[in-house]
Structure formats: structure tokens, C-alpha cells
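Here we describe the complex-level prediction in full. Unlike the single-chain runs in Section 2.1, the two entities below were treated as one system.
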Amino acid sequence: MNLLAAFPGKRYIVLKIKDAKVRQQANSLGIGEGEDVYCVARQKGGPVIIGSGGQLVAVGGEVARSIQIAPLRTKRK
Amino acid sequence: MAGNPNVGKSLVFTNLTKRYVEVSNYPGTTVDISRGLWQGNPVTDTPGVYALNGSNDEERLTEALLSDADVIINVVDGTSLRRDLYLTLQLSARGVPMVVLVNMMDEVRRQQLQLDLARLETLLGVPVVAGAAATGEGMAELGQVVKTIGPGKRQRLRDQDGDMLRRRANEIYQAIAAFQGKPQLSPLDKWLTRPLSGLFTAALVMAFIWWAVGRLVAGEVVDFTEGVVFKRWLLPPLVTILQKVLPQGLLQHVLVGEFGIFTMAVAYGIGLLLPLVFSFYLLLSLLEDSGYLPRLAVLLDNTFRPLGLNGKAVIPLILGFGCVTMAVISTRMLTTKRERIILAFLLGLAVPCSAQTGVIAMMLATMGYGWLVLYGLLLMVIFVMAGVILNKTMPGRSDGLFLELPRLRLPRPRNILSKSWAKSKAFLKDALPLFVLSACLITLLDYWGGLAAMEKLAAPVTEAWLKLPPTVVRAFIMGLIRRDFGAAGLLTIELSAGQRFVALMTMTLFVPCIASVLVIIKEHGLLMGFAITLTSLAVALLAGGLLAAII
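The structure predicted for the assembly as a whole is:
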């Protein structure tokens, strides 16, 4: 699945970012491959607002489509 | 001084260099940098960047500036340290003596984040200072450390591989920080980024900007600075003296004629443009420092995609309804040259500035509101069409939205004022010589009968194609200098309702005013300036002619 399909309130792990420029940006913002991110809010078709390490990042629809993610299973408290 | 955007770097900078600040355009780029003196040494505030990959103007400029640095002060935000460490590692790989200032410690304590800064110092091999620029905490200590600093441990990152850098940054972060909670949108944030409430707020903000720049400053303030100070107090005595001292002829025209250096260039530059520029920078800094602009960009991202722009384009666009010239300057905030050119094009073509809208709205309203609605709709159609065509034909690719949302915060008045003033001064230094030059050119044109000749030359176009009397040419040329002059000039010419509509529409689409063209040339080069001017001209005449045929 890609980031556009993320549900607000759920945690995900970033699997793969196809576009090299996007990957570089993502790395410098701390949401590169292998990071876990938290979907904070989403408009249909983007942008998606994700949280990671205390900061919020808005990702436009096209960019979000190129970011592959998988749900991160965490135990419920 | 280097660091990520929104880490409070400029506040640290103003804190250190209390007095001497100079904002300038770095040669060959469109990025503003600030320079100042601290403890007798020059300090440069580089643009905020997330990395040094040379992937945009800011990053390339920062690299260039850092290559001259004797000491690097890396400002990081204690609340987003994991992200910031990426740049810190890249910086420390340069082997230049460096100190890391962990800023926003007041916020770190408030959020009860645990940071082991002693361990950070060991892991990075460079001194680390805790501070909070907002309260002045740590600034004195920073001064001590910078004096005694030597070459630090050089991080061995030879291939600069992004994935590897990120892993290393994460390792360091895990070693020094306790777990951070989930980031969340504050209620205000939710309000601003949800479509309905967000658009409502955006409309209010836009209305306020339009009122403040377009009405309050362009009207009331400029009426005083230009209308009273210059036209009543300063110019009349000056003109009288110069007319007595100088022989009649060209020199007198050049200095104090209708388009003279003093009567036009200086009076407009200082009486008209300076208040506009200053108020514009004031509002822009307010929006910037509060963190509202990124929220607006999120809200409108999808709307702008067909035009080859992303949500960030909304900011210059709003400003364009106040003053197109200023808006062109603010296209700098877009990341690719392609986006900047598309937006400069659209601004020059189809966005009427406040000086114009006032006169135009008045003229159309007296003809009936149907004309006003038609005017707005036609402009919108042309705007969207031009954007779509540019997006399809321009080479390259526009960047998608990828934008950090900094915390919303109350801007600091001192910071806003000093930033706006420094930027206004820098703008005036650039613009005034260009104004003087264009005043000279127009005077010469007028003196040697160029204006009258142009009227004759343009007659086939004005009479046969646009079906307008030849005298409108003068109004159009006046419109180049100041938009509202041109539109108001049409009032004195006898026109039918249809003719008036054609003339107003053509004038709106027509070449942007001289100030805008000069700024477009300054930002995008002579070639692009001509391209935008000529295209505007072509579109204006085409649309005007078609309208004249239909109406």
C-alpha cells in the first residue's frame, strides 16, 4: 500500500520510496525507508499529514503515492 | 550559522548580532541571507536547509557560504533533534570547527523530553551548548565556546549516502533521547487544515491582506507619503528651484519633467513603493513566523496541481492581489525554477493588483454588476487555461508538496520589525536605480515625440482590431507605469459600455507594470522578462480583439 491509503490514527513503517529526490528529502526530514510514521490526518487524494519524532510533515498526493508503507502492528494498551 | 528551517535560527542570529544586520541577495541566486557582526567577527545566517545535497538554491548557497566559514554554529531544535541530526552529521563531515546549539530547550523542558546532551557531545565529537533564543538562555555560553573551539572529530561520511546518514542520525538519537510521544494536531491546527473551516479562515486572512495592503497602505498611507509629503511638501519647491537654475530643455525634463528622476522615480520609489514594500514584508513575516502559511499550502495543494504548482503557490498569489511586483519576489519560496516561472507568468498575465482593482471595480460597477461578474469569470478562465498550457508545455517537472508543519506560534514583534526593515532597505537599494533608469528612458521617448508616434503606429491595432479610439494608447502606456493611472485614464475617453469592457479587459491582461517587469527581469533574467511581457501582450490583444468582435 502507499501512503495515500494510510488511516489517520494508525502507525506505519516506510518500506520503499521509489523516487530518488523524494527519498533524499524524506531522509533529511527523518521519515526515510525503515522509519515508523504516524498518520495524523488525510484529505482524500492528499495531502497526508504524518508525524514522526515530534514533528509534523505534510505530503502532497503525488509524493504520497510514491511512498510505500505497511501497517505497524503494536499491542493495544 | 547553519540549521534546518524553523529551528529559531534567525532569532539566535538577531540575539547575537543585536545591532548590525544586513540582508542581501547572494549574487546569482534569489535567496536572501543576513549578515551581522558578533564579538567583532562577521556572522552569516545561511538559509534554513534540511540537508546539503545541492538539490535547490538554498542548499547550494548554504554549501557555498559554508566553504568560507572558520567556525560553524549548527542550530538544532531540541524538540526535533532526530530530524536535525542528519544535517549536523553532514556539517561535521566538513572538518570545520563546529559547535552545536541545541535551541528551544524551554520547549524541550515543557514537553518533558529527556535529552542527554553530554552524551551527544561525545558521540558527535563537537561541543554542544543548550539554549533558548527566545529567552536568551545559552547565548553567553555559546560565545565562550566559539572562542575556544578547535577542529572537532571529523565524522567519516565519505560517500554521503542518504540512507546511511539517516541510520547514523537515528542511532545517535536513540542513544541520547528517551521515547517521544505521538505527535498530534492541535485543535487550531485541525481547524486550519480541514477544508471547510480552513477555507473560511483563508478567505478571512486574504480579505485582511487585501484590505491592509490594497486599501490601508496603497490608499491611506500612500496618499500621505506620495500625495502629501512628495507632491505637496518636497517636490514643488525642488521643481521651482531646478526650473530656475537649469536651462529649459532635456536636462530639466530628465530631472523634474512629467516622468523625471525626482518627480517620478524617487517620488514613486520612496513615496509609493517603500510603504507598500515595508507593509508587505511585515505581513509576510507575520504569516511566516506564525507558521500559518504551511497550513494554507496543505489546504490548497490539490487545487493547484493541474497548473503545475503545489500548495505553496497560494502565498504569492494572495500577495499578487495586493501588489504583483511584491508577489513576484515572493515566488522565491517555490522550490523549482519551473514553478517560479509558471507563477510569475500567471501573476503578470491575469492577476490585477489592488491599484487596478479599485479603479476597475468602480468603472465596471457603474456599468452594471453583470459586467463585473463577467470580468471576474473571464479572468479566472484565462488564468486556469494559461496555467494548464504552461504546465503542459514547460520542460521539467514540478515538485510535489513535501512540507514540514512547524509549530504554530506567536510571532515576536522585534524579530518581525527588524527583518522587515532590513529586507525593505535591501529591496530599495536594488529597485531605485532601475526606477531612475526607466524614468530616463520614458522621458527621452516623450521628449523626442515617441509617445505620439506610438499612438499613430498602434492605430491599426487599436482601431481596426480592438475597435477603440487611438487615444487609448496613452492610457495603456500610462498603465505600464502605474496600473490605476492607466485604468483611470480610460475614464476621460468617451467609450461605449462594450468598448470600455474591452479596454479594461485588455489592460488587465496587458504587460504588467514597469516595476513588475523589472522585478521579473531581476529574478528570472532578461529573456524571461521579455517572454512574459510579449506573451502578456499577445494574450491581451487576442482576448481583447475576440471580445470586441463578440460584444
